Automatic annotation (TrEMBL):
Entry keywords, A to Z: Hydrolase, Manganese, Metal-binding, Mitochondrion, Protein phosphatase, Transit peptide
Pfam family membership, one: PP2C
Gene name, Swiss-Prot/TrEMBL: PPM1K
The keyword Mitochondrion appears for this protein: yes
Domain PPM-type phosphatase: 88-340
An MF annotation (GO) of this entry: manganese ion binding
Cofactors that this protein relies on: Mn(2+)
Descriptive protein name: protein-serine/threonine phosphatase
């Protein structure tokens, strides 16, 4: 888009877009036809009041990752939106004390507008998690070409991949595939601002907003009244193990999953619950996807606090998995950390640390 056309859009779209253009002068450099003096005056005195403007006055991010501005989405939404670079995404996985790591994760760019982040936690083997990791992108991309609503896209993709896994398992000579399943938590980000999350099972997604954890998923467990009622209505039952944990038909600790074909007739479904969020890059620091090896040992706010101490998302992902291990996690643990505009802005110098939990989970006393 030419500078002249951009200026025309700004004049027609109002003051917010004017601020976006003026602030982007630094990015446009010598191509920007607006004088430096005009930019400087607008930057430090937005409303002519004589009061100096702060970074937050512009509605922009903390800028600690020095991300470029996404101009088309910024014009579309009327506020500056930073680019979420896949090169800055952090991820880590740890086998724990298991013989095999059944966790899988993936992220990438599906279309020019949409980014993809996913985490899968297999049980009964890796077949279902591997299948999801291999084909989930394919189904989402297909439905994105037909449907604009990303919540519907994810629901259709989850149901379709479950059907595809069923066909795959019935054609396979390996009968164990019928008893294998996986959680799935998938996030789609459009234009750097429209976030949609879908999930089945007990893997989780959380958003750190103003330093506080906001859960974007709810675990699908037999303890939930609505989930329990569906299981019983379909002819299944809930049994508790020796640790007091409820399981569907005494076997599965979750009520929704991809796979677990032998329990589909008992009410275990693959339809995800979804959540839509519009990001505010002045206050949203990061998105975290985690598997239950982390979730059962570290609560959501602790995850936020740990990440907020880290220099970059890669370090943060490793810190999360390592902290779960220090607290006594034996299961596979996997984390994906996606930084947003306020990365590093809400860093807290104090972390609440439980000495008794750390002491009790050490190798000597576990």
């Amino acid at each position: 888009m030419s500078t002249a056309a951009l200026i025309g859009l700004v004049r027609n779209r109002g003051q917010q877009l004017q601020r976006a253009l003026l602030t982007s002068c630094a990015v446009l450099g010598s191509k920007c036809q607006i004088s430096t003096n005009d930019c400087r005056a607008s930057r430090f005195d937005l409303d002519g009041s004589g009061c100096p403007a702060t970074w937050d006055s512009f509605g922009i991010w903390d800028n600690r990752l020095d991300e470029p501005i996404l101009l088309p989405p910024s014009i579309k939404y009327g506020k500056l939106i930073p680019k979420v670079s896949l090169s800055n995404v952090g991820c880590a996985t740890h086998i724990g004390k298991r013989k095999e790591n059944e966790d899988r994760f993936d992220y990438g760019q599906l279309t020019e507008e949409v980014l993809y982040f996913a985490i899968f936690d297999g049980h009964g083997g890796v077949a279902a998690a591997d299948f999801c990791n291999k084909y989930m992108r394919k189904y989402i991309r297909e439905f994105l070409s037909e449907e604009r609503n990303m919540e519907l896209v994810l629901i259709k993709a989850f149901l379709e991949i479950d059907k595809a896994y069923m066909r795959h398992a019935h054609l396979s000579a390996d009968a164990t595939l019928l008893n294998t399943g996986s959680t799935a938590t998938v996030a789609l980000l459009r234009d750097g601002i429209e976030l949609v999350v879908a999930s089945v099972g007990d893997s989780r997604a959380l958003l750190c907003r103003k330093g506080k954890a906001e859960k974007l998923t709810i675990d699908h467990t037999p303890e939930r009244k609505d989930e329990k009622e569906r299981i019983k209505k379909c002819g299944g039952f809930i049994a508790w193990n020796s640790l007091g944990q409820p399981h569907v038909n005494g076997r599965l600790a979750m009520t929704r999953s991809i796979g677990d074909l032998d329990l589909k007739k008992c009410g275990v479904i693959a339809e995800p619950e979804t959540k839509r969020v519009q990001l505010h890059h002045t206050s949203d620091s990061f998105l975290v996807l985690t598997t239950d090896g982390i979730n059962f040992m570290v609560n959501s706010q602790e995850i936020c606090d740990f990440v907020n101490q880290c220099h970059d998302p890669t370090e943060a992902a490793h810190i999360i998995t390592e902290q779960a291990m220090q607290y006594g996690a034996e299961d596979n643990s996997t984390a994906i950390v996606v930084p947003f505009g306020a990365w590093g802005k809400y860093k807290n110098s104090e972390i609440n640390f439980s000495f008794s939990r750390g002491f009790g989970s050490s190798g000597r006393w576990a």
